[in-house]
Amino acid sequence: MTPERRLDQLEPALADGLQKIDRLVESHGQLVGLATDTKAELEQVKRTGEITASGLAKLTTFVQEGFVNVQKDIADLKTGQEAIMQYLREKLP
Asked: How far apart are CA 77 and CA 64, in angstroms?
């Protein structure tokens, strides 16, 4: 086999291999870009979750404190109501 003929046989195989390598490199670049974008989105979701958890904790504390205050106000009203009822019993026949 002559070197010319050997080269004719190798060129298509080499071109095909190089084309496949180029496609793999391009696909790899796309995968790296996708992974980078996904990581950024995941970090944003994490930050949003942390902000939501913090807000929920603050809201829970606020509601609990408000509930305690409402209970105290109700107790004060009951005390005042009992005092008024006692006064009325004493003054009315």
From this structure: 20
In SS3 terms, 69-92 reads as HHHHHHHHHHHHHHHHHHHHHHHC
Q: Residues 46, 48, 53, 58: is their CA dihedral positive or negative?
A: positive
Q: Please provide the DSSP assignment of 6-28 as one string.
A: HHHHHHHHHHHHHHHHHHHHHHH
Structure tokens at 73: 């106000």
List pLDDT tens digits, range 33-83.
999 999 999 999 999 999 999 999 999 999 999 999 999 999 999 999 999
Determine the residue type at 21: I
